[in-house]
From TrEMBL:
<dbReference type="InterPro" id="IPR041183">
    <property type="entry name" value="Cyclophilin-like"/>
</dbReference>
<feature type="domain" description="Cyclophilin-like">
    <location>
        <begin position="17"/>
        <end position="126"/>
    </location>
</feature>
<dbReference type="InterPro" id="IPR029000">
    <property type="entry name" value="Cyclophilin-like_dom_sf"/>
</dbReference>
<protein>
    <submittedName>
        <fullName>Cyclophilin-like</fullName>
    </submittedName>
</protein>
<dbReference type="Pfam" id="PF18050">
    <property type="entry name" value="Cyclophil_like2"/>
</dbReference>
C-alpha cells in the first residue's frame, strides 16, 4: 500500500461550511470525489479527535483500489473505507503511516489553524464553491 501523496489535477473547488465559517477546499478527480460531488450539497456530523474531524457518511463512496493509501498529509480531506468515514485531517501526518484504508478526496485551501477555531462537535455542509466552475489548472501542494 502506498503512503499519502498530494498532486491534484482538474480539481473541483468546494466550501466546507461550519456555521458561519467557510473553509475553501479542492476535491481531486478520483471515483470517490466524483461520487461525493454528485451528492452535493451534503451534510455530515463530525467530532474532533486528536488529529482530525471525523464523521460517518450515510453510505460508502466507490473507490479504486489504486487510490487506497496509508497515512495522510496535514490538510487532506479523505474517505476511510473501513467505516464510511469522511475526515478532515489537520495534524500528525508524521504519525499517520500506521493508518490504512484512506482514500484522499482533496485538500483544504486555507490555513490549518481554522480547524482550531471550531467546536468539538460540528455539522459540515459540503457544497460547490461555484456550481459551474471546475478548475482546469493542476494544483500541487
Amino acid at each position: 500500500m502506498q503512503h499519502a501523496s498530494r498532486t491534484l489535477k482538474n480539481g473541483t473547488r468546494i466550501n466546507l461550511v461550519v456555521g458561519k465559517t467557510e473553509i475553501p477546499a479542492l476535491l481531486n478527480d478520483n471515483a470517490s470525489s466524483r461520487a461525493l460531488i454528485e451528492k452535493l450539497p451534503y451534510s455530515v456530523r463530525m467530532h474532533r479527535y486528536e488529529h482530525d474531524y471525523c464523521g460517518v457518511m450515510d453510505g460508502p463512496l466507490p473507490y479504486d483500489q489504486q487510490d487506497v493509501r496509508s497515512g495522510w498529509l496535514n490538510g487532506d480531506i479523505a474517505f476511510a473505507i473501513h467505516g464510511n468515514y469522511f475526515t478532515i485531517l489537520f495534524k500528525d501526518e508524521e504519525l499517520s503511516g500506521e493508518f490504512d484504508g484512506i482514500v484522499n478526496l482533496g485538500i483544504l485551501r486555507s490555513p490549518l489553524s481554522v480547524m482550531d477555531s471550531l467546536p468539538a462537535d460540528i455539522t459540515v455542509v459540503i457544497k460547490l464553491e461555484n456550481p459551474a466552475a471546475i478548475d482546469a489548472q493542476p494544483t500541487t501542494r
